[in-house]
From TrEMBL:
Matches recorded under PANTHER family: NON-CLASSICAL EXPORT PROTEIN 1 (PTHR28011)
UniProt xrefs under InterPro entries: NCE101
Organism field: Kluyveromyces marxianus (Yeast)
Swiss-Prot/TrEMBL keywords: Membrane, Transmembrane, Transmembrane helix
Keyword Membrane: yes
Manganese recorded as keyword: no
Top-level taxon in the UniProt lineage: Eukaryota
Gene Ontology process terms (BP): protein secretion
Ranges annotated as spanning the membrane: 12-29
Protein name: Protein involved in non-classical protein export pathway
């Protein structure tokens, strides 16, 4: 008989929490390193979102 893994916040909130913590830690890393313009996480996500948005409008 196996026991279920304990959850910190809940079955669905734990992965969401992990993604948020990872994104925030990478964002703080970028602030320390001073990434070049056009290569920050914000700009890369914005470019990806714009591409998806443009692709939907073309259909």
């Amino acid at each position: 008989m196996t026991t279920s893994a304990p959850y910190l916040l809940g079955r669905f909130l734990d992965p969401l929490f992990a993604i948020c913590v990872g994104a925030m830690s990478y964002y703080s890393y970028e602030q320390k390193v001073q990434r070049p313009a056009g290569h920050t996480l914000d700009e890369l996500i914005r470019k990806k979102y714009d591409r998806l948005k443009n692709k939907k409008t073309e259909l």
